[in-house]
Amino acid sequence: MIKVLQRPVEYAQYCSHEFQTALAGYEMRSSMSRKGDCWDNAPTESLWGRLKVGRLYGKRFATRREAMDEVMDWLNFYNHTRLHSTLGYVSPMTFEQRWIAAQQQDRKSA
């Protein structure tokens, strides 16, 4: 099942019966926290903020494809190259690979 993240200000329309039924038709489910709880959205807002300031602010793209390529290039950098202090100064991809390896090692040990 696919999860879709929406902004908290859009809460009312996205928890409506009609929208939830449409999601179910696509085998998707929404993930929403309590009203006024911004914490589950903070990492996403931070990510998009960095993208906008770091790569898109003030740029004009000749085509939609050019803009999409720029976003994908940045996301590739963000996930595979950029070092994150909260992850011990490794990239998210490296952190995840190490975590998976540790989980597999724990299973072998058990």
Question: What does the model show?
Answer:
- By secondary structure, the chain is mainly alpha-helical.
- It has two domains: 38 residues, no CATH class; 68 residues, no CATH class.
- The chain is extended.
- The protein starts with a strand and ends with a helix.
- The mean pLDDT is 82.
* Outline type: extended
Q: Which strand order does the major sheet show?
A: 1-2
Percent strand: 5-15%
Total domain units:
2
Mean pLDDT: 82
Helix content: 55-70%
**Gap between N and C termini, in Å?**
30 Å
Radius of gyration, whole Å: 18 Å
Q: Would you report the number of β strands?
A: 2
Order of helices and strands: EHHEHHH
The structural class is mainly alpha
Number of helices: 5
Largest sheet: 2 strands, parallel
Low-pLDDT windows of residues: none
Which terms would index this structure?
110 residues, 2 domains, two-stranded parallel ribbon, 2 strands, extended
Which helices and strands appear, and what pairs or packs with what?
Blueprint (H helix, E strand, L loop, with lengths): L1 E3 L6 H4 L2 H9 L2 E3 L11 H15 L7 H17 L11 H18 L1
Précis, in short:
The protein has 110 residues and is mainly alpha-helical.
